[in-house]
Prior knowledge:
single chain; about 210 residues; alpha/beta; Rossmann fold; five-stranded parallel beta sheet; about 60% helix; globular
Amino acid sequence: MIRGKFITLEGGEGVGKTTNLEFIRDYLQNRGTRFLVTREPGGTPIGEAVRRLVIDSQGMEAQTELLLMFAARAQHIREVIEPALADGVWVVCDRFTDASYAYQGGGRGIDTEIIQFLEQWLQKGLQPDLTLLFDAPIAVGLTRAQSRGQLDRFETELPDFLSRVRETYCDLARRWPHRIKLLDATQPLAGVQAEIAKHLDSLFQS
Ligand code: TMP
């Protein structure tokens, strides 16, 4: 059995991940690929319960937030991601560990080494084959997020926090250029999707 590919989507608030997820779904369906779409935090009953807690709670400590993200992730990896990949199914995940580096590391200021420790302990070398990082100035993303309706706890963070999240994502893309592909989410949608298709084409050839 050929192992499935693991694709993750990342980016700040309101950068258009959901719209592009639909494009990826159509692309993989047209290719006849067996795949599943999932998200973090979430993706399992336990993970979805953690998601509600982490997104809705007020007064949550940064350490609590980080550990809950990884608690949901541990469950997700063992219950969904690893079994699917081993079965040859491609996994498309809306956010993964890069989000912990960006939000809890960059945003909340938790030491990178602590996140690295949790990553190594829980992922045992599991890494996405491709990460699509949607990038837009925070003002653009926030306007889009606002137009969707009520803002959650992360979307109402101060601009400084959101700028640190964005910078950390861009640093990660510079650090892992083969895995993380930075996409300019301010260009017309057709341009973004042409780039996504190009990266997916390469993944099929790899
Ligand atoms: P969403 O906006 O993609 O629905 O994700 C929910 C929020 O969770 C988003 O604002 C970013 C945040 N998040 C983290 O802070 N750390 C993480 O590790 C993950 C996966 C998400």
